[in-house]
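Two records follow; treat each independently.
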Amino acid sequence: KMAEFLNLTQLKTSLKETILFDYYTAGFWWAKEMNFSLIQISGFMGLLNFALENLSSKRMTLGDNIKELERAVTRIRETESEEGGDLNLFSIDQGKAVIDFLFSSLFQYYKAYEYLFHVRREDPVLSNE
């Protein structure tokens, strides 16, 4: 289901798709194990996607990505405040756990993800021809 949702059609032949599948699946199951509500899981998955898009599409450095993530969270909180929404999507402990997850999953391996998205690789050989 996750591969369908992410529109990953070449999991068996694409290292990039396999890594992305693993990244999102690990995040989803981690959030489930944390007993996050559906809204919290949605917000968490959005943060994972936001950070990864900053790296892949915008080619942000690690430092810039962390700063942008902080700004995005601040904007979300300000928007919720203006709309009278709930400012506490995550408790303090949950927020710390989310930050720890981001640092241990994406930010710790940032150079590897940069390589995945920005270094041209040779096409894989799929047959004897």
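The next record belongs to a different protein.
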Amino acid sequence: TGTISSLQRQMEIQESELRRIRFEKELLQKQIRERDIQLQVVCNKFCSLTEEQRQEEAVGMMEEQNHNFQQVVTEQESQLAEQNKLISELQGTISQLQAEVVSTRLNLLKEKQAQREIQSQVEALQHRELQSRVALDLISSKFERYRNKIIQATFSVEGSQDPQAELTDDEVLEATQRIINERMEFQQMLKNKGSK
């Protein structure tokens, strides 16, 4: 945004300079027109003199006026050429600045689009994280209930003693395996005795 503002300020300065030069050009053209009018006045003045006077005065005045007018025209043509060159350069600079503004705006749009995509990905990841936490809490709750049932079933067997401290998962597994082994041995004994 700062770059765009800077470029726009430069464009405004260049356009102001362009307007100033165009104004000076119009002023020079106006001066040329005024010189033409003066020349016309002199010509009209000559027309009112006698033929001989006209010729004498015409030669002197025309030479002087021609010399002066030629100098003015040369100077003004030189100034016009310089101003036209400067106008062309300013227009080129303005075009370049406009292109830079467009390019900067395009880059800003791309950055905003990338930022929106990243924000969308972040929101999706946050949503997935929340879902994972909910699923983890659910699994943890189910596992804890299952573990408690195993402990209850393991230590509710006749002759078992209640645990004195909180059991580790390995201790629960070992106690469960012991009960399974005992029941399998008991079942084998019953088979051996012919009992159903």
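Discussion point: The two ends are 89 Å apart (CA to CA). How would you locate this feature using only the token line?
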